[in-house]
Amino acid sequence: xxxxxxxxxxxxxxxxxxxETPDEMVRFDAETGIWNVYGHAEALKTLSDxxxxxxxxxxxxxxxxxxxxxxxxxxxxxxxxxxxxxxxRTLVSHAFTPKVVADLEPRIAELTNELLDAVDGQxxxxxxxxxxxxLPVIVIAELLGVPASDRDLFKQWVDKMLKSSQQTSLxxxxxxxxxxxxxxxxxxxxxxxxxxxxxxxxxxxxxxxxLTKLVEAExxxxxxxxxxxxxxxxxLLLAGHITTTMLLxxxxxxxxxxxxxxxxVREDRSLLPATIEESLRFLSPFALVARxxxxxxxxxxKTIPADRMLLVWVAAANRDPRTFTDPGTFDPARARNPxxxxxxxxxxxxxxxxxxxxxxxxxxxxxDRFPDLRTDPAVPPSFIPSPNMTGVDELQxxxxx
Length: 401
Description:
The chain is an alpha+beta fold.
């Protein structure tokens, strides 16, 4: 039987999308020197204990495999452990409180309508280019204080980074992997240099935005370094839009592929939040997160030594039959859905409430304005060409009956 993933053409390494369950929930890969975690309980344990499972994974890469790593680590919230992680996260937590996020809803609705005005009257639209990408990137750019009009630049750099994504290894790289890695670093440097210019400008011309707050912030009585500010802002800019872009495209695709669920959501919009959660489980945007052991530990019946890297495949964990009934079925009415798409523990995605609000607001307006919306059978969806992500990068939609 052909699964939806196979008919859609998702990445060949994403076995969980083909309803395949690994024989072992924790497995060592001798070719890469890395442990892989696939089970939900095992992933939950890993993400919930930063003392044993550190986020500082860069320290495990030998210099020859990651010569520029130090440049991108300072201030990178994703690579930090307590107490430094809490100190830095606190600096921006005020920007993502429930009230602040809720107050953004009118602006999100306004932007959605403006973007859809551009395709009103047309027979078709490409969802990512017309809505799913520009909406969240404009929102996060406005919060940070960088020009949203530069979003085509961001997309150019980010697309090249994603297309260059290769399997992680601690034991060496093929020529092809090295070339892809170098290309990814080159695009990351473009983004870092761009943000660095804006940081310099905020030192001279403070404004009411997140970038200025980072420039002026003090941690333990000291200002953040240039590297810390830039890398922090970089994480916020990237994470602040990529998840929502994939969430929007994936949810529309899931609904279109399940007509009964689509009909129910069209008729009863109160079902939309649960539908978004099931989309996050069924097609988890970020397939993995990495951790490094600080001591020997037992996980999933395996003994893992200290100073070993783990790839925690949250997308596979979200299909674990021990946790989810019929995990290969898209079921927005699922009674229990403890998915890990936004992570868990101290690194739970700080922008999750914003992503959920953007998804709900944009999809409601999209369905209101185009009640006959559906995918174009002549143009199959195209997915981001990375095993580490699951999201459409092109989704052609028909808008008229």
